[in-house]
Amino acid sequence: MDEIREHMEVIGADGVHLGTVDAVEDHRIKLTKADSGMGSHEGHHHYISRGLVAGVEGDKVRLSATAANAYGMEEEQ
After folding, report:
1. If 12 and its partner were Cys, which of 26, 37, 67, 69 is the partner (CB 3.0–4.6 Å)?
2. Can you spell out the DSSP letters for 53-71?
3. Confidence of residue 38 (pLDDT cuts 50, 70, 90)
4. What is the bridge-based pairing of β-strands 9-11 and 60-63?
C-alpha cells in the first residue's frame, strides 16, 4: 500500500467520507486533526489500521468496512 499519500480522502466501503490522510506511520494511517470529530475526540489525530484498506482508487483510499464501522475501530495516539 505504498501508493497511500498525504491529503488522500479515506472513505468507507459505503463511499462515506471518514477522513483525510495526514501520514502513514508503520501499520496505521494517521488522519488529519480536522477529521477528528467533536467532543472528547476533537483536536487530536485518529488512526486507521492499514489492514482495513481494500484498495486505492485515484485520490481515495477505500476501506473494507463501512465508514460507521471503521469509525468504531479508529485508534487514538
Report:
1. 67
2. EEEEETTEEEESS-HHHHH
3. very low
4. parallel
Distance CA 25, CA 47 (A): 9
% pLDDT > 70, the chain: 82
Model-level pTM?
0.84
CB 63 within 8 A of CB 10: yes
R_g over Cα of the chain: 11
| 54 neighbors 64 (Cβ within 8 angstroms) | yes
Q: Residue 49: helix, strand or coil by DSSP?
A: strand
